[in-house]
Design a protein that fits this description.
With 172 residues, this protein is α+β, with helices and mostly antiparallel strands. It has 4 helices and 7 strands.
Amino acid sequence: MSGGANIEIRAGDNDDLREAAAVCERHYGGEIAERARQFEKVLARDDAYLVVATSGDRLVGYAKTEWCDWSQRSEARNIEAGWYLGGIVVAPEARGMGIGRRLTMARIDWLSIHHPGLPIWYFTDVTNVASVAMHASLGFVAVTHDFDVPGCSFPDGGVLCRLDGRTRSEGA
């Protein structure tokens, strides 16, 4: 894929399930059919949003945001209920083109339209320096390193970040 490829960022739909699952499977492993079912569940939820990046007729990345509330989970610690950015993957051949940033900005824009004024949350392993730097450049600030998220582990330590609520006109 050339650096000048025309990349479109748009809301994901049912026609994207299989390709998003294939990109996910290449990154995380697992079975494509099961990954596609997971994406189908995201699309069916009122409290989740899937955005995709395409180049021509090929899906080259995806990202989601969803409302998460771990308050009933004993393994959760120091993590608030709210809108979380997560599940972003860009195909290896499309990395370094700013697609991750554009997918993140699309989710911020969607949240600022549909849930204006609410903070947006994000967490990752501290060793994911590219992601930490990109989110910081969009205004996310570190809140704590002392937290636990059910189903997630951070061998080198995690960082929980927040972007205070803004309206779309404030930009990212």
